[in-house]
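Good morning,

Attaching, inline, the backbone tokens for the sequence recovery test we're adding to the shared suite. The designed sequence is right after.
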């Protein structure tokens, strides 16, 4: 004889058990609550809740399916017309078992099994929706973080051509001392050529200037440039060789 799937079997065999559960379900749907032994209540609970799930569908096929188990048409009509609409907002837990004192005589543990027909409170529904929204938001945040992390390139992935390896200043420019450019003068260019319109070379350390036709003009590295000898003298520079 096969063993039951949940808990001990009630009755002498499988057929007897199906008949007992059918009678208990009929009484439950007619009266909303019944008192029975704890073992029968535990076996009846999944059986009755499955019938309520069929009743919530409300179609003809579900009604015929329930009629194969519960033979009382009045109980089936009440299940589909009155009980199922009350369970529309519930996703499960259609019954409730409450343990009571032992039965007199054989001291068997007793329990009351009843249908939970109270309407689902708006507060519980709101809390359930809020919890679902929080879970969805957390899941979306994790997905967005994963996408953002996948889109950020690492240092190893950066192309070498995009990396600026050129130093901002050359060594000569870094080591060159700062030169004060007097009024009327122009600073020396980076390549050593004269600015446009400036021909007189000036040496800031010696305060000497060199004209294009002077002896040391070509050998002198200009630190500042003047447009004329008059501008150089006005800036306090002396012509090279004049002191000799």
């Amino acid at each position: 004889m096969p063993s039951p799937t949940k808990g001990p079997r009630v009755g002498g065999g499988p057929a007897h058990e199906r008949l007992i559960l059918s009678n208990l379900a009929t009484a439950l749907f007619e009266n909303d609550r019944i008192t029975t032994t704890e073992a029968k209540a535990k076996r009846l609970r999944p059986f009755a809740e499955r019938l309520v799930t069929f009743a919530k569908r409300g179609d003809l096929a579900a009604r015929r399916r329930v009629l194969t188990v519960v033979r009382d048409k009045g109980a089936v009509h009440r299940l589909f017309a009155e009980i199922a609409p009350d369970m529309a907002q519930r996703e499960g837990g259609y019954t409730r078992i409450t343990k009571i004192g032992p039965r007199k005589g054989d001291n068997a543990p007793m329990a009351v099994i009843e249908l939970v027909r109270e309407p689902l409170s708006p507060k519980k529904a709101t809390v359930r929706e809020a919890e679902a929204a929080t879970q969805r938001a957390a899941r979306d945040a994790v997905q967005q973080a994963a996408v953002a992390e996948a889109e950020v390139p690492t240092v190893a992935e950066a192309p070498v051509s995009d990396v600026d390896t050129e130093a901002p200043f050359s060594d000569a420019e870094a080591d060159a001392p700062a030169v004060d450019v007097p009024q009327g003068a122009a600073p020396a260019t980076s390549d050593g050529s004269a600015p446009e319109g400036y021909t007189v070379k000036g040496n800031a350390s010696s305060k000497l200037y060199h004209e294009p036709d002077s002896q040391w003009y070509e050998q002198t590295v200009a630190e500042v440039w003047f447009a004329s000898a008059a501008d150089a003298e006005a800036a306090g520079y002396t012509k090279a060789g004049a002191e000799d």
